[in-house]
Amino acid sequence: MKSYITVGDLLQRKHFEEIEILAGEEGLIRPVKWVHIVEVTNIRKLLRGGEFILSTCALLHDNKELFLSVVEQLIEVHASGLCIELGTYTTHIPNEVIDLCNLHQFPLLIFHNEVPFVEITQDIHSILINRQYQMISELESYTQELNKKLLTFGHTKEILQFTKEYLQIQVVIVFNNQEMQFSPDVKTSEKKKFIQLIHDEINQGADFAPQTITKIPIHILGDTYAELYLLAENRTLTEFDHLILDRTATALAQLLLRQLYVEEKKRIEESEWLTAWLDGEHSEDAIHDYLGYHFPKIKPKGAVVCQFKLESISDFSTLDITYFNLYVRAFFEPQGFTLFSIEKKHTITFIFINERNASTWKVRMKEGIQRLEKSDLRMSKQTTPFVLAIGKFVPQLAHVHESYLTSLETIRIQDRLTVPSQCHFYDDLHIFRLISLLNKHVNLQEIVMEYLEPVLTYDDMYNGKLLETLKTYLACNGSKQETAKRLFIVRQTLYHRIEKLEKLLGDDFLHHEKRLAIEFMILSHEFLLTSQLKKEKGGRQLVPKEGKM
């Protein structure tokens, strides 16, 4: 459907039978959005582009400079054309005005006799209103036909082809990974040049410039997945084109989401192979052979295992888990990772295949985490925050088992911290990794009591808060002023507590080696205390309030 009327179309109406095209004949293809009768000289702020102007030029009085100013304003705001009634107020059109209109292909039309402007506006407005109604009907027809075809379309190219045949202009989709699809297709060598042209023209276009290029983002799960472009070489894009573009983008989003869902279901079916991979049962060659066959575009540069701990996966439907996986992929795949997921006990385990520089993997992971934390991701039956644990990065894919074990260790350590770590990475747990390791192989409680028993006993008997004071005093590097400030106590009270600590621990407890040992034992005591509390509560998993998703 031709969704717009041009200046040339108006010349076919009865009131324009005897009109003269004085200048700008090449601009007769300009679309007309509305008709105005204008008799003012300062018109720049009154128009929005696409208006066809009728005037007697009553205020110009054959003033050449004023005449030029009015025409320049009309050209600047991209009016469709100017139609002047000569004789009553204006008898002469300056040559400079004619030259200006020809230069800018701006139609300048002349009535040599008096004409009824009111009848002209009524006639043209009726055409525009009827065309608007026709446009709405055609849009509805296009949408219904597109929705029907969407049931059988299996590829984005089919939708692009359908839109191209309907509008008869170039349609382009550009995905986030810079993959481009054109309808009609163009040579590979021309595609990047074409996209650069699109980018430049959109960014440099003036507010009133006639549009020949436009775009719209395609959103999936709240994120921009691709961008859809229209390019018209021989005409200006209209409101109808923009509406068609919007409907097409919606259809593409539905098709792409359906494809992503099917792919996600397929990934879930691969869980048996992934389980064996996490258990260390596949060799490096076997892993590369598998990935090369099923995912030939992947170029692995190391991997890392990431775990999302949930309350109970059994409480969630398959649809819940599938959409959770889609959300995670939407935030991390743009950071240069390919994800494989598997459900294990209370966690959804992801293997992140790194495809960019290995030295930047952690920075990119943090960027994905930040985006996920800011998202509106919710699962209806999840009443507590997600716990996220990331194992160590491994350069070889056969060593993913090591990353998996360290991710499990990260969750165990996070569960046992009195003040939960806000870090999700195994590499950043530092001293807590050593405490966890010692607790597995020695009687850590006995060693802790060797250093802290006098302080703990005193606190139990007198509620003296010596352990809290000791921990704060060491954290402040022995600064009494800062310690008193953090504990909200007066200095005299602090001096009394420090004297008591010196009697119980020895006056050398700030000496370097002993101080390091005491600080280590304080952290170990908190680690063991949290473990004991968990046992007393029947082994129920404690979920940190921080370090959450």
TrEMBL record:
Record-annotated PucR C-terminal helix-turn-helix domain positions: 466-521
Domain Purine catabolism PurC-like residue range list: 9-127
Domain of life: Bacteria
Pfam families given in the database record: HTH_30, PucR
Record protein name field: PucR family transcriptional regulator
Organism: Robertmurraya beringensis
